[in-house]
Amino acid sequence: MAATVQPASKNGQAKVLIVDDHPVVREGIAQSIRRAGDLEVCGEADCPEKALQAVSDLRPDIVVVDLAFSTGSGLGLIRDLKVRYPQLPLLVLSMHDELIYAERVLRAGASGYIMKHEDTEQFVLAIRKVLQGGIYLSERMTARMLPKLTGKVPAAAASSIEGLSDRELEVFQLVAQGLSTREVAERLFLSIKTVETHLDHVKAKLGLESSRELLRYAVVWLLEGR
Questions:
Q1: Does domain 4-148 have CATH number 3.40.50.2300?
Q2: Which residues contact 129 (CB under 8 A, 6 or more apart)?
């Protein structure tokens, strides 16, 4: 699917680009945005590559982006966009646990993180806050991050999963979804050797001795809704 394009706004509405690889999800997001009188959908894209082209073509005021794609990396897309368009606000809308991912997307350059189960009113509020130059996080996530920002939580307090690097977490998540090493390499545009190295690091950080233990751990982690 090519990135879809809508005419530029002529009525002062903020232009929103939606980046998600599920058509039904994109339509639901678009409907929520259209119901807000001050926002409009200027385009959609279903993968990072098309998202970069759509931003170049459409010059949106904000990008709403998922983290998981069938090709490419959501975190990688966020980093690419911030390098090319440092002033462009980015809001992540994801099904993945904010306790694991929210801090990572902020480090990558996004200005907010909202879970897909949140209601429409909260989603629109998040868009508006990010458009105004603010940072959007849930109350739960804000309360969790404040002690870190003020230096009141020791580094050892982080969970094992939180100790993984962004790339290690991406590899771990794909393994949990049942992808082979080769498939992970193809999905993330990495060499098989690089993926194997990341998996070795993951096993070491999680205290796992074998690939079988890693797979079992990853599947349980996924089933728990992370």
A1: yes
A2: 112, 135, 136
